[in-house]
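#struct-pred
JK: can someone run the complex with flavin-adenine dinucleotide? inputs below
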Amino acid sequence: MEQLMRSLLLSMAQNRAANRWAKRYGLRLGAQKFVAGETIEDAVATVRALNQQGIKVTLDHLGEFVNDEAEANESADYCIRTLEAIHEAGVDSSLSLKMTQMGLDISRDLCMKNMRRILDVAKQYDLLVTIDMEDYAHCQITLDILDELRQDYDNVGTVIQSYLYRSLEDVLRLGGQGVHLRIVKGAYKESPEVAFPDKADVDANYLKLMEAQLLSPGFAAIATHDERIIAQAKDFIQKHNIAKDKYEFQMLYGIKTSLQQQLVREGYPLRVYVPYGNDWYGYFMRRLAERPANVAFVLKGMFK
Ligand SMILES: Cc1cc2nc3c(=O)[nH]c(=O)nc-3n(C[C@H](O)[C@H](O)[C@H](O)COP(=O)(O)OP(=O)(O)OC[C@H]3O[C@@H](n4cnc5c(N)ncnc54)[C@H](O)[C@@H]3O)c2cc1C
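RT: done, C-alpha coordinates with the ligand placed:
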Protein backbone atom coordinates (compact mmCIF):
# COMPACT_ATOMS: atom_id res chain seq x y z
CA MET A 1 0.00 0.00 0.00
CA GLU A 2 2.81 2.39 1.02
CA GLN A 3 4.69 1.50 -2.19
CA LEU A 4 1.55 2.25 -4.25
CA MET A 5 1.06 5.62 -2.54
CA ARG A 6 4.72 6.49 -3.10
CA SER A 7 4.45 5.61 -6.78
CA LEU A 8 1.26 7.68 -7.17
CA LEU A 9 2.77 10.72 -5.45
CA LEU A 10 5.92 10.51 -7.59
CA SER A 11 3.80 10.41 -10.78
CA MET A 12 1.81 13.40 -9.49
CA ALA A 13 5.12 15.25 -8.89
CA GLN A 14 5.52 15.59 -12.69
CA ASN A 15 1.95 16.78 -13.41
CA ARG A 16 2.25 20.03 -15.34
CA ALA A 17 -1.29 21.33 -14.77
CA ALA A 18 -0.91 20.92 -11.00
CA ASN A 19 2.46 22.65 -11.22
CA ARG A 20 0.90 25.66 -13.02
CA TRP A 21 -1.85 25.81 -10.39
CA ALA A 22 0.74 25.75 -7.59
CA LYS A 23 2.76 28.61 -9.15
CA ARG A 24 -0.37 30.71 -9.49
CA TYR A 25 -1.76 30.22 -6.01
CA GLY A 26 1.39 30.32 -3.88
CA LEU A 27 2.49 28.04 -1.06
CA ARG A 28 -0.48 25.79 -0.18
CA LEU A 29 -1.31 22.37 1.27
CA GLY A 30 1.22 22.77 4.07
CA ALA A 31 4.16 23.24 1.66
CA GLN A 32 5.50 25.96 3.97
CA LYS A 33 6.69 23.14 6.27
CA PHE A 34 9.29 22.21 3.61
CA VAL A 35 9.72 25.47 1.63
CA ALA A 36 11.20 28.60 3.22
CA GLY A 37 8.99 31.11 1.36
CA GLU A 38 8.60 32.57 -2.09
CA THR A 39 11.08 35.48 -2.15
CA ILE A 40 14.85 35.92 -1.82
CA GLU A 41 14.17 37.97 1.33
CA ASP A 42 12.31 35.00 2.87
CA ALA A 43 15.20 32.73 1.93
CA VAL A 44 17.93 34.99 3.34
CA ALA A 45 15.99 35.43 6.61
CA THR A 46 15.82 31.62 6.94
CA VAL A 47 19.53 31.23 6.19
CA ARG A 48 20.35 33.82 8.81
CA ALA A 49 18.20 32.11 11.45
CA LEU A 50 19.78 28.71 10.70
CA ASN A 51 23.31 30.16 10.68
CA GLN A 52 22.61 31.59 14.15
CA GLN A 53 21.95 28.01 15.31
CA GLY A 54 25.33 26.90 13.92
CA ILE A 55 23.79 25.38 10.77
CA LYS A 56 25.14 26.07 7.26
CA VAL A 57 22.73 26.20 4.34
CA THR A 58 22.46 25.40 0.67
CA LEU A 59 19.76 27.51 -1.02
CA ASP A 60 17.71 26.14 -3.88
CA HIS A 61 15.59 28.48 -5.98
CA LEU A 62 12.92 25.93 -6.88
CA GLY A 63 12.33 24.97 -10.49
CA GLU A 64 12.76 21.96 -12.78
CA PHE A 65 11.82 20.41 -16.13
CA VAL A 66 11.82 23.83 -17.86
CA ASN A 67 10.84 23.63 -21.56
CA ASP A 68 11.20 27.22 -22.68
CA GLU A 69 14.45 29.09 -23.35
CA ALA A 70 13.28 32.36 -21.75
CA GLU A 71 12.23 30.47 -18.61
CA ALA A 72 15.61 28.69 -18.42
CA ASN A 73 17.46 32.02 -18.72
CA GLU A 74 15.21 33.52 -16.08
CA SER A 75 15.95 30.59 -13.74
CA ALA A 76 19.67 31.16 -14.21
CA ASP A 77 19.18 34.89 -13.49
CA TYR A 78 17.41 33.89 -10.28
CA CYS A 79 20.33 31.67 -9.28
CA ILE A 80 22.68 34.60 -9.87
CA ARG A 81 20.46 36.88 -7.76
CA THR A 82 20.51 34.23 -5.05
CA LEU A 83 24.33 34.14 -5.09
CA GLU A 84 24.40 37.95 -4.92
CA ALA A 85 21.96 37.94 -1.99
CA ILE A 86 24.10 35.37 -0.13
CA HIS A 87 27.19 37.49 -0.72
CA GLU A 88 25.55 40.80 0.21
CA ALA A 89 23.96 39.40 3.39
CA GLY A 90 27.27 37.77 4.38
CA VAL A 91 25.47 34.53 5.29
CA ASP A 92 26.90 31.00 5.15
CA SER A 93 25.20 29.31 2.23
CA SER A 94 26.05 27.53 -1.00
CA LEU A 95 23.68 27.17 -3.97
CA SER A 96 21.95 24.05 -5.26
CA LEU A 97 20.30 23.87 -8.69
CA LYS A 98 18.94 21.48 -11.26
CA MET A 99 20.16 21.07 -14.85
CA THR A 100 16.62 20.83 -16.26
CA GLN A 101 15.98 24.21 -14.65
CA MET A 102 18.91 25.61 -16.67
CA GLY A 103 17.42 24.39 -19.95
CA LEU A 104 18.94 20.89 -20.32
CA ASP A 105 15.75 19.56 -21.96
CA ILE A 106 15.91 22.35 -24.56
CA SER A 107 19.59 22.11 -25.47
CA ARG A 108 22.88 21.14 -23.88
CA ASP A 109 24.44 24.40 -25.10
CA LEU A 110 21.79 26.54 -23.42
CA CYS A 111 22.27 24.64 -20.17
CA MET A 112 26.05 24.98 -20.42
CA LYS A 113 25.80 28.71 -21.12
CA ASN A 114 23.59 29.23 -18.08
CA MET A 115 25.82 27.07 -15.88
CA ARG A 116 28.89 29.08 -16.88
CA ARG A 117 27.12 32.37 -16.13
CA ILE A 118 26.22 31.08 -12.65
CA LEU A 119 29.61 29.55 -11.92
CA ASP A 120 31.43 32.74 -12.93
CA VAL A 121 29.48 34.70 -10.31
CA ALA A 122 29.85 31.94 -7.70
CA LYS A 123 33.62 31.85 -8.32
CA GLN A 124 33.83 35.63 -7.88
CA TYR A 125 32.16 35.30 -4.46
CA ASP A 126 33.99 32.06 -3.56
CA LEU A 127 30.73 30.12 -3.31
CA LEU A 128 30.07 26.45 -4.07
CA VAL A 129 27.37 25.30 -6.51
CA THR A 130 25.96 21.77 -6.20
CA ILE A 131 24.15 20.24 -9.15
CA ASP A 132 21.22 18.23 -7.79
CA MET A 133 20.72 14.83 -9.41
CA GLU A 134 17.36 14.37 -11.11
CA ASP A 135 15.78 11.30 -12.70
CA TYR A 136 17.87 8.56 -14.34
CA ALA A 137 17.18 9.93 -17.84
CA HIS A 138 19.29 12.97 -16.92
CA CYS A 139 22.03 11.23 -14.94
CA GLN A 140 24.71 10.55 -17.58
CA ILE A 141 24.34 13.94 -19.26
CA THR A 142 24.52 15.69 -15.89
CA LEU A 143 27.80 13.92 -15.12
CA ASP A 144 29.14 14.68 -18.62
CA ILE A 145 28.35 18.38 -18.16
CA LEU A 146 29.96 18.31 -14.72
CA ASP A 147 33.15 16.82 -16.20
CA GLU A 148 33.25 19.59 -18.80
CA LEU A 149 32.58 22.34 -16.26
CA ARG A 150 35.28 21.01 -13.94
CA GLN A 151 37.89 21.80 -16.58
CA ASP A 152 37.27 25.49 -15.79
CA TYR A 153 35.70 25.55 -12.32
CA ASP A 154 36.55 23.88 -9.03
CA ASN A 155 33.56 25.34 -7.16
CA VAL A 156 31.07 22.81 -8.51
CA GLY A 157 29.97 19.43 -7.18
CA THR A 158 27.06 17.05 -7.65
CA VAL A 159 24.86 14.39 -6.08
CA ILE A 160 25.02 10.61 -6.33
CA GLN A 161 21.96 8.45 -5.59
CA SER A 162 22.38 5.12 -3.79
CA TYR A 163 19.28 3.59 -5.45
CA LEU A 164 21.13 3.44 -8.80
CA TYR A 165 23.18 0.32 -9.60
CA ARG A 166 25.81 2.47 -11.35
CA SER A 167 26.56 4.76 -8.42
CA LEU A 168 29.53 3.04 -6.76
CA GLU A 169 31.47 3.35 -10.01
CA ASP A 170 30.53 7.05 -10.23
CA VAL A 171 31.63 7.73 -6.65
CA LEU A 172 34.93 5.93 -7.13
CA ARG A 173 35.67 7.87 -10.33
CA LEU A 174 34.49 11.32 -9.22
CA GLY A 175 35.57 11.09 -5.58
CA GLY A 176 38.97 9.88 -6.82
CA GLN A 177 39.27 13.13 -8.79
CA GLY A 178 38.50 15.13 -5.65
CA VAL A 179 34.93 16.06 -6.67
CA HIS A 180 32.60 17.35 -3.96
CA LEU A 181 29.77 14.79 -3.74
CA ARG A 182 26.50 14.72 -1.84
CA ILE A 183 25.37 11.15 -1.23
CA VAL A 184 21.57 10.63 -1.14
CA LYS A 185 19.23 7.66 -1.47
CA GLY A 186 17.33 9.09 -4.49
CA ALA A 187 13.92 10.71 -4.78
CA TYR A 188 12.55 9.81 -8.25
CA LYS A 189 10.51 6.96 -9.63
CA GLU A 190 12.96 4.57 -11.34
CA SER A 191 12.65 1.16 -12.97
CA PRO A 192 14.25 -1.98 -11.49
CA GLU A 193 16.42 -2.08 -14.61
CA VAL A 194 18.45 0.83 -13.28
CA ALA A 195 17.67 1.09 -9.57
CA PHE A 196 17.41 -1.25 -6.57
CA PRO A 197 13.71 -1.88 -5.97
CA ASP A 198 14.25 -2.88 -2.30
CA LYS A 199 14.90 -0.26 0.34
CA ALA A 200 17.30 -2.57 2.21
CA ASP A 201 19.56 -2.65 -0.86
CA VAL A 202 19.36 1.14 -1.29
CA ASP A 203 20.38 1.58 2.37
CA ALA A 204 23.23 -0.96 2.10
CA ASN A 205 24.51 0.74 -1.06
CA TYR A 206 24.29 4.11 0.69
CA LEU A 207 26.82 2.92 3.26
CA LYS A 208 29.18 1.71 0.53
CA LEU A 209 29.02 5.04 -1.33
CA MET A 210 29.38 7.08 1.85
CA GLU A 211 32.43 5.13 2.99
CA ALA A 212 34.05 5.31 -0.46
CA GLN A 213 33.55 9.08 -0.61
CA LEU A 214 34.75 9.63 2.97
CA LEU A 215 38.00 7.82 2.10
CA SER A 216 38.43 9.61 -1.24
CA PRO A 217 40.13 13.00 -1.82
CA GLY A 218 36.66 14.53 -2.46
CA PHE A 219 34.41 16.22 0.10
CA ALA A 220 31.57 14.00 1.41
CA ALA A 221 28.12 15.45 2.13
CA ILE A 222 26.21 12.74 3.99
CA ALA A 223 22.65 13.75 3.11
CA THR A 224 20.10 11.65 4.95
CA HIS A 225 17.62 11.70 7.83
CA ASP A 226 18.18 7.99 8.45
CA GLU A 227 19.33 7.71 12.08
CA ARG A 228 20.82 4.27 11.59
CA ILE A 229 23.00 5.51 8.73
CA ILE A 230 23.95 8.66 10.66
CA ALA A 231 25.08 6.50 13.60
CA GLN A 232 27.14 4.31 11.23
CA ALA A 233 28.63 7.43 9.63
CA LYS A 234 29.70 8.75 13.04
CA ASP A 235 31.41 5.42 13.87
CA PHE A 236 33.18 5.35 10.50
CA ILE A 237 34.34 8.97 10.82
CA GLN A 238 35.73 8.29 14.28
CA LYS A 239 37.37 4.99 13.31
CA HIS A 240 39.13 6.55 10.30
CA ASN A 241 39.84 9.83 12.04
CA ILE A 242 38.22 11.85 9.25
CA ALA A 243 38.76 15.58 9.60
CA LYS A 244 35.80 17.95 9.99
CA ASP A 245 36.70 19.86 6.83
CA LYS A 246 36.36 16.66 4.80
CA TYR A 247 32.65 15.97 5.40
CA GLU A 248 29.33 17.31 6.65
CA PHE A 249 25.87 15.95 7.39
CA GLN A 250 23.04 17.41 5.32
CA MET A 251 19.29 17.39 5.85
CA LEU A 252 16.27 19.01 4.27
CA TYR A 253 14.59 22.11 5.67
CA GLY A 254 11.69 21.17 7.94
CA ILE A 255 12.61 17.50 8.38
CA LYS A 256 13.92 16.07 11.67
CA THR A 257 14.82 19.48 13.06
CA SER A 258 15.53 18.11 16.54
CA LEU A 259 18.04 15.65 15.06
CA GLN A 260 19.62 18.58 13.18
CA GLN A 261 20.05 20.49 16.45
CA GLN A 262 21.41 17.43 18.19
CA LEU A 263 24.14 16.95 15.55
CA VAL A 264 25.16 20.59 15.96
CA ARG A 265 25.27 20.21 19.77
CA GLU A 266 27.51 17.18 19.31
CA GLY A 267 29.88 19.31 17.22
CA TYR A 268 29.23 17.76 13.80
CA PRO A 269 29.21 20.00 10.71
CA LEU A 270 25.66 20.28 9.36
CA ARG A 271 24.18 21.94 6.29
CA VAL A 272 20.45 22.24 5.64
CA TYR A 273 19.00 22.34 2.13
CA VAL A 274 16.58 25.25 2.00
CA PRO A 275 14.29 25.52 -1.04
CA TYR A 276 12.39 28.69 -1.85
CA GLY A 277 10.35 30.16 -4.70
CA ASN A 278 6.96 29.66 -6.31
CA ASP A 279 7.78 26.44 -8.22
CA TRP A 280 7.30 24.31 -5.10
CA TYR A 281 4.91 21.62 -6.33
CA GLY A 282 7.32 18.89 -7.61
CA TYR A 283 9.65 19.28 -4.63
CA PHE A 284 6.73 19.12 -2.20
CA MET A 285 5.24 15.98 -3.81
CA ARG A 286 8.60 14.18 -3.56
CA ARG A 287 8.73 15.00 0.16
CA LEU A 288 5.25 13.54 0.57
CA ALA A 289 6.27 10.43 -1.33
CA GLU A 290 9.24 9.87 0.99
CA ARG A 291 6.90 9.60 3.92
CA PRO A 292 3.28 8.94 3.00
CA ALA A 293 2.36 9.76 6.63
CA ASN A 294 2.96 13.37 5.49
CA VAL A 295 -0.17 13.06 3.33
CA ALA A 296 -2.28 12.81 6.50
CA PHE A 297 -0.71 16.06 7.62
CA VAL A 298 -1.67 17.70 4.29
CA LEU A 299 -5.26 16.43 4.54
CA LYS A 300 -5.55 17.70 8.12
CA GLY A 301 -4.38 21.14 6.91
CA MET A 302 -6.94 21.15 4.07
CA PHE A 303 -9.90 20.46 6.35
CA LYS A 304 -8.91 22.81 9.13
C1 LIG B 1 20.38 17.73 1.64
C2 LIG B 1 19.65 16.78 0.74
C3 LIG B 1 19.72 16.96 -0.63
C4 LIG B 1 19.08 16.08 -1.49
N1 LIG B 1 19.29 16.16 -2.85
C5 LIG B 1 18.76 15.22 -3.66
C6 LIG B 1 19.06 15.18 -5.06
O1 LIG B 1 19.79 16.02 -5.59
N2 LIG B 1 18.50 14.20 -5.80
C7 LIG B 1 17.69 13.23 -5.27
O2 LIG B 1 17.24 12.34 -5.99
N3 LIG B 1 17.38 13.26 -3.95
C8 LIG B 1 17.89 14.21 -3.14
N4 LIG B 1 17.58 14.19 -1.80
C9 LIG B 1 16.49 13.34 -1.30
C10 LIG B 1 16.95 11.93 -0.99
O3 LIG B 1 17.23 11.24 -2.18
C11 LIG B 1 15.87 11.15 -0.21
O4 LIG B 1 14.72 11.05 -0.99
C12 LIG B 1 15.48 11.77 1.11
O5 LIG B 1 16.58 12.30 1.76
C13 LIG B 1 14.84 10.73 2.03
O6 LIG B 1 15.74 9.70 2.29
P1 LIG B 1 16.51 9.51 3.68
O7 LIG B 1 17.95 9.35 3.35
O8 LIG B 1 16.20 10.60 4.61
O9 LIG B 1 16.05 8.09 4.20
P2 LIG B 1 14.62 7.45 4.44
O10 LIG B 1 14.88 6.03 4.77
O11 LIG B 1 13.69 7.77 3.32
O12 LIG B 1 14.11 8.22 5.71
C14 LIG B 1 14.67 8.03 7.01
C15 LIG B 1 13.73 8.69 8.01
O13 LIG B 1 13.77 10.12 7.83
C16 LIG B 1 12.48 10.67 7.96
N5 LIG B 1 12.08 11.28 6.68
C17 LIG B 1 12.63 11.06 5.45
N6 LIG B 1 12.00 11.80 4.51
C18 LIG B 1 11.04 12.48 5.15
C19 LIG B 1 10.05 13.40 4.73
N7 LIG B 1 9.94 13.78 3.45
N8 LIG B 1 9.21 13.92 5.68
C20 LIG B 1 9.33 13.57 6.97
N9 LIG B 1 10.26 12.70 7.44
C21 LIG B 1 11.09 12.16 6.54
C22 LIG B 1 11.56 9.55 8.36
O14 LIG B 1 11.50 9.49 9.77
C23 LIG B 1 12.25 8.33 7.81
O15 LIG B 1 11.94 7.16 8.50
C24 LIG B 1 18.26 15.04 -0.94
C25 LIG B 1 18.19 14.88 0.44
C26 LIG B 1 18.87 15.71 1.28
C27 LIG B 1 18.80 15.48 2.76
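RT: quick notes.
The mean pLDDT is 90.
The longest helix spans residues 69-89.
JK: thanks, will look after standup
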